[in-house]
Amino acid sequence: MRDPRPAPAAPASWPNALRRATCSAMLRLLPIPLRPALLGAGAALLATALPQAVDAAPVTSKAAEAAGRSPWSEGAQSRARLIDAGPGPGGHGLLAGVEIRLEPRFITYWRDPGDAGVPPSFSFAGSTNLKTATVRYPAPSKFDEAGAEAFGYRDDVVFPVLVEPADPSKPVGLAVTLDYAACHDICLPAHADLRLALGRGAAPEAAWVGDALSAVPRPGTVGGGGTPAVRGVEPAPDGGFRVTASGAGRGAALFVEAPEGWAYAAGTPVVAGGDAVFPVKRLDRPKGAEVPPAPLVLTLTAPAGSVEVPVTLDGAAPKP
Q1: Which end of the chain is more exposed for a tag (fewer CB within 10 A), N or C?
Q2: CATH code of the region 218-319
Q3: Whole-prediction pTM
């Protein structure tokens, strides 16, 4: 099945993406891209930028690899490593995890960083006996970062990686080049080169990877079942829309991903019992365009779970 998420813009290279960016009036060491609608609201251009990402070469450790995990790669206010989690879901392929552990109160970003930020970048070039590697993203949280709304994770996150070997009878040498950001008041880029031979035995932390995979939003449809669920989507006169969710009382959040050039923001929901109605405002669109050329992706999170729902806008009403 084709991934319904809108194709992201081609990521700018690190650190070029960091040099060109902006943030709020509070000066930060790392400039972060802001949505165009926020730039017009008076976000100040950042005056300084780090000349290059904070980079730390991983320390070789046979003991760590024997335990099913790579050595830590130290970065700015953070560290990263690979975890072997054994067989994949249903016994298909292998399961690994990329763990980013942050200093207290620091955050790193989801695949959509929100108003400001840089999503993590994963490259598996240099791996051996690897057919495919698919990174999954646990449900994010929302944070206020110097007046901008950021989407991501605080303190610690594990990104599950579904691994398909080219030859299932042989071990996979997984190599991951990881670029990410660690932010709190200041925002710093970090880089890690991680390597681990999979298939030699799961690490003691394998359960963490399983928990992270369980935290990935399940696929859903408008009007579908499950808890929480997106019950309906109705157009609003300002180009936005309203989302009605069930099983999403207090603590629920809505994230809206859109194609390049488009931006939407979900506001504070009106909660009644176990239901919530989210107003969604259109922040930006390409000149002359009326509707996005690809489906939006709504990610609804709640204490009971999370769901990811594609929605197509046709200019009159959103369609499931």
Answers
A1: N
A2: 2.60.40
A3: 0.82
